[in-house]
Design brief:
Shape: flat
Largest sheet: 2 strands, antiparallel
Strand order of the largest sheet: 1-2
Distance between the termini: 54 Å
Protein backbone atom coordinates (compact mmCIF):
# COMPACT_ATOMS: atom_id res chain seq x y z
CA UNK A 1 0.00 0.00 0.00
CA UNK A 2 2.79 2.39 0.79
CA UNK A 3 4.38 1.81 -2.60
CA UNK A 4 1.17 2.98 -4.25
CA UNK A 5 1.46 6.24 -2.33
CA UNK A 6 5.24 6.78 -2.18
CA UNK A 7 6.57 4.63 -5.02
CA UNK A 8 7.80 7.69 -6.87
CA UNK A 9 10.54 8.09 -4.23
CA UNK A 10 11.82 4.58 -4.97
CA UNK A 11 11.76 5.11 -8.72
CA UNK A 12 13.47 8.48 -8.31
CA UNK A 13 16.18 6.99 -6.08
CA UNK A 14 16.86 4.24 -8.62
CA UNK A 15 17.00 6.71 -11.51
CA UNK A 16 19.38 9.00 -9.59
CA UNK A 17 21.40 6.07 -8.21
CA UNK A 18 20.67 7.13 -4.63
CA UNK A 19 20.01 5.10 -1.51
CA UNK A 20 16.58 3.45 -1.42
CA UNK A 21 14.16 4.62 1.31
CA UNK A 22 14.27 2.58 4.50
CA UNK A 23 10.54 1.80 4.38
CA UNK A 24 11.12 0.13 1.01
CA UNK A 25 14.09 -1.89 2.27
CA UNK A 26 12.04 -3.04 5.28
CA UNK A 27 9.24 -4.49 3.12
CA UNK A 28 8.84 -8.23 3.74
CA UNK A 29 9.42 -10.73 0.96
CA UNK A 30 6.34 -12.57 -0.23
CA UNK A 31 6.32 -16.29 0.43
CA UNK A 32 4.60 -18.98 -1.62
CA UNK A 33 0.88 -18.63 -0.95
CA UNK A 34 1.00 -14.96 0.07
CA UNK A 35 -0.19 -13.86 -3.35
CA UNK A 36 -3.34 -15.97 -2.88
CA UNK A 37 -4.25 -14.12 0.31
CA UNK A 38 -3.43 -10.72 -1.16
CA UNK A 39 -5.72 -11.41 -4.11
CA UNK A 40 -8.46 -12.68 -1.79
CA UNK A 41 -8.14 -9.62 0.43
CA UNK A 42 -8.60 -7.21 -2.47
CA UNK A 43 -11.56 -9.21 -3.78
CA UNK A 44 -13.20 -9.09 -0.34
CA UNK A 45 -12.28 -5.42 0.11
CA UNK A 46 -15.19 -4.55 -2.19
CA UNK A 47 -17.70 -5.97 0.32
CA UNK A 48 -16.85 -3.57 3.15
CA UNK A 49 -19.05 -0.66 4.21
CA UNK A 50 -17.64 2.74 3.37
CA UNK A 51 -18.81 5.81 5.26
CA UNK A 52 -17.81 9.44 5.65
CA UNK A 53 -14.00 9.42 5.71
CA UNK A 54 -13.91 5.85 7.04
CA UNK A 55 -13.89 2.22 6.00
CA UNK A 56 -15.70 -0.47 7.95
CA UNK A 57 -14.22 -3.94 8.36
CA UNK A 58 -14.82 -6.67 5.80
CA UNK A 59 -17.88 -8.57 7.06
CA UNK A 60 -16.90 -11.97 8.46
CA UNK A 61 -19.89 -13.63 6.78
CA UNK A 62 -18.56 -12.46 3.38
CA UNK A 63 -15.14 -13.91 4.17
CA UNK A 64 -16.65 -17.24 5.23
CA UNK A 65 -18.98 -17.32 2.23
CA UNK A 66 -16.12 -16.77 -0.22
CA UNK A 67 -13.93 -19.35 1.52
CA UNK A 68 -16.68 -21.98 1.45
CA UNK A 69 -18.19 -21.32 -1.98
CA UNK A 70 -15.17 -20.27 -4.01
CA UNK A 71 -12.56 -22.55 -2.46
CA UNK A 72 -14.50 -25.28 -0.65
CA UNK A 73 -12.77 -24.55 2.66
CA UNK A 74 -14.21 -26.22 5.76
CA UNK A 75 -13.43 -26.45 9.46
CA UNK A 76 -9.81 -25.59 10.33
CA UNK A 77 -8.90 -24.43 6.83
CA UNK A 78 -11.88 -22.05 6.77
CA UNK A 79 -10.92 -20.75 10.23
CA UNK A 80 -7.37 -20.11 9.04
CA UNK A 81 -8.64 -18.33 5.91
CA UNK A 82 -10.91 -16.08 8.00
CA UNK A 83 -8.13 -15.34 10.52
CA UNK A 84 -5.60 -14.37 7.83
CA UNK A 85 -8.04 -12.10 5.98
CA UNK A 86 -9.15 -10.45 9.24
CA UNK A 87 -5.52 -9.81 10.25
CA UNK A 88 -4.86 -8.25 6.86
CA UNK A 89 -8.00 -6.17 7.22
CA UNK A 90 -6.97 -4.89 10.65
CA UNK A 91 -3.65 -3.78 9.17
CA UNK A 92 -5.44 -2.10 6.28
CA UNK A 93 -7.86 -0.27 8.60
CA UNK A 94 -4.94 0.91 10.76
CA UNK A 95 -3.16 2.13 7.62
CA UNK A 96 -6.24 4.00 6.40
CA UNK A 97 -6.72 5.61 9.81
CA UNK A 98 -3.12 6.84 9.76
CA UNK A 99 -3.54 8.11 6.19
CA UNK A 100 -6.62 10.07 7.25
CA UNK A 101 -4.76 11.58 10.22
CA UNK A 102 -1.86 12.46 7.93
CA UNK A 103 -4.20 14.18 5.48
CA UNK A 104 -5.82 16.18 8.28
CA UNK A 105 -2.40 17.24 9.62
CA UNK A 106 -1.46 18.42 6.14
CA UNK A 107 -4.67 20.44 5.90
CA UNK A 108 -6.41 18.19 3.42
CA UNK A 109 -9.79 16.59 3.74
CA UNK A 110 -9.22 12.94 2.81
CA UNK A 111 -12.75 12.22 1.71
CA UNK A 112 -15.33 14.02 -0.25
CA UNK A 113 -15.86 17.49 -1.55
CA UNK A 114 -15.74 19.90 1.35
CA UNK A 115 -15.42 23.63 1.85
CA UNK A 116 -12.31 22.95 3.95
CA UNK A 117 -10.68 21.23 0.99
CA UNK A 118 -10.05 24.41 -0.97
CA UNK A 119 -10.42 28.13 -0.45
CA UNK A 120 -13.75 29.71 -1.26
CA UNK A 121 -13.90 31.39 -4.66
CA UNK A 122 -14.94 34.99 -4.82
CA UNK A 123 -17.01 36.26 -7.69
CA UNK A 124 -15.57 38.94 -9.87
CA UNK A 125 -17.80 41.92 -10.31
CA UNK A 126 -19.26 42.41 -13.74
CA UNK A 127 -17.40 45.35 -15.33
CA UNK A 128 -20.63 46.87 -16.82
Amino acid sequence: MRYRRDGFSVESAIAKQRKLPQWFLDEPFLLIGDEFYIKEFWMLHTTRAIGANAFGPIPVDKIEERGERRHGFQDDLLDLYVDVIRQMDEGFLDWMSEEHKRAVRQGRNSGGNSATERPARTRKKNPR
